[in-house]
């Protein structure tokens, strides 16, 4: 594998914030040396980063790449009036229409977009009930071909009956048996309100067998809470916990309708709560009590791209609008949460510009009219930096974007092919 010597960058670590000047040497997917004026060695490719800002790569802690081909698609004839209708009229129509080609190009287009935004790890929650078996293999191939780091799972659900549920379970098992350096697995489940006790028990069997966690939507809308109380006489989180599904690798997306008391015991179990501000606003499901999410909180996009520069801005502005006392640093803590999750799931430091950490980093061409220091990095991230400043992206020691160009030679063709796949997908949905 190629060795790189990255010279003269200003290194900006997000949380805790740190700004420093140093050179980095990268080999075998990791940062192997850091220091002032590192000498060039035989075989090094030297990259001059003078005047540029280098950050650890962004991690999107919850998304659905299957929605990548939904951009601009026609809406339903009758607009949905609540969250269950949004699922039924939009997303459950779209995911059932996905075939192998649409799954592949959703993943490819979503990954390319993520790379261009400086996202270096995508934690995905996949559903394609018309094409379950083999879907994660298709996605895994897209991640590995484009050099993206990912955590994949299949959303197990009862909404299509037992046979589809069983295929979903097996799809998760397949990925957990075929993890690679770039692609890891979790046990996916849609949401408690579409899962019977028997199905949750099957998910728990996988969680135990592979010593991993579950990735599930938690109390995104009141419908999840109401179903749990009416049919099972338990809160959503207590029902999941009663099957042993909550542990320190479990990712609970949204957590909008969770009481403060319940958040206190969820924090004690050490599972992760993933805030998705743009999606919550878009679906009008409510505002999550993020000031009670605690230390193990992260930021996701829930399918609205994997652009963490946009997501963190929306998180911040929504918090101000709701009068939640979250400054830029608190928002960065959530962003860093994704890097901490990735570090746990990949078993190596991700999100640090230090020796031994994954060489997942982004180089920004960010001309700032004001000084940048550790005390105001958050202010720059919220009010200054955007994805448009992303100049180069390295994942696991390989440049996937350099000087604003994808390094994969077929990237332009992939976008054209994705457009054709999208047109066919929309046709099947109509
Ligand atoms: Zn989601």
Automatic annotation (TrEMBL):
* Origin organism lineage: Bacteria, Candidatus Moduliflexota, Candidatus Moduliflexia, Candidatus Moduliflexales, Candidatus Moduliflexaceae
Q: Whose protein is this, by species?
A: Candidatus Moduliflexus flocculans
PANTHER family reported in the protein's UniProt record: AMIDOHYDROLASE-RELATED DOMAIN-CONTAINING PROTEIN (PTHR43794:SF11), AMINOHYDROLASE SSNA-RELATED (PTHR43794)
- Domain Amidohydrolase-related span(s) in chain numbering: 54-400
Q: Which domain of life is it from?
A: Bacteria
Against SUPFAM superfamilies, the record matches this protein to: Composite domain of metallo-dependent hydrolases, Metallo-dependent hydrolases
- Name the Pfam families on file: Amidohydro_1
Recorded hits in NCBIfam families, A to Z, give: PRK07203.1 (NF005540), Se_ssnA (TIGR03314)
Any coiled-coil ranges, and where? none
Annotated protein name in UniProt: Putative chlorohydrolase/aminohydrolase
Q: Does the keyword Nucleotide-binding apply?
A: no
Q: Which Gene Ontology terms cover its molecular function? A: hydrolase activity, acting on carbon-nitrogen (but not peptide) bonds
Name the keywords, alphabetized.
Hydrolase
